[in-house]
TrEMBL record, chains A, B:
Pfam families: HxlR
Alphabetized UniProt keyword annotations: DNA-binding, Transcription, Transcription regulation
Entry superkingdom: Bacteria
Designated name of the protein: HxlR family transcriptional regulator
PROSITE patterns: HTH_HXLR
Transport keyword on record: no
Domain HTH hxlR-type: 15-113
Length: 123, 123
């Protein structure tokens, strides 16, 4: 969406808001943001928290989130230098909604498991 | 997560809750759920609402959401038969959080656009 007089609409395929939504809800984006909602993280600790992500995928994910203004990368002066990731205010707002969503999903695992059994039995 | 005594944890790579989170936040899952939060939809109308989705991708997305108990597919008796999609109570809870997330993202398009300009200027 290059025309700022148009209202943002994630349902419109060219809208920047759809791109941002999709970075925030990408496979690793959603988990990286939810982890950063708990605390700031150094890269390697974040990678341990987001179980299963490769170094390359986490690095790409963080770059996309940083570019969209959701995450800040801070280089701390030290030898060797330390790099820390944290949320911007917008990143915090997005991550809070993701955390609420995650809570709903985690609480309803038995509902999902039962729905799958029922669905698979009908096939 | 096959052991129901373990607590669900999206950060654990084998947990069912992570799979469900990722269906709900997939590229088309998030938009299909947000559309169904507005109203029930017939397949073709939903496809028009979710601008850019192919018939095949929407169909796969809806099957995954139905299997996880987020969406219900109802065949209405008519000639020709009509198929309608709606949210389950769990789908509604998930979609409400996605809708709040979408609102934040849509409202902050100028912040994101400014962050991108700033990021790209630093490279």
């Amino acid at each position: 969406m290059d025309d700022p007089t148009l209202e943002a609409d994630v349902f419109a395929r060219g809208c920047l808001s759809r791109e941002t939504l999709q970075s925030a809800t990408s496979r690793w984006g959603v988990l990286a943001l939810a982890a950063l909602a708990e605390s700031d993280y150094r890269f390697s600790a974040l990678r341990r928290r987001v179980d299963g992500v490769s170094e390359r995928m986490l690095s790409q994910t963080l770059q996309t989130l940083e570019r969209d203004g959701l995450v800040v990368r801070t280089v701390l002066e030290a030898i060797p230098p330390k790099v820390e990731y944290s949320l911007t205010p917008l990143g915090r707002a997005v991550a809070d909604h993701l955390t609420s969503l995650i809570r709903v999903v985690e609480e309803h695992v038995p509902t999902v498991a039962a729905a799958r059994i029922e669905y698979d039995a009908r096939r």
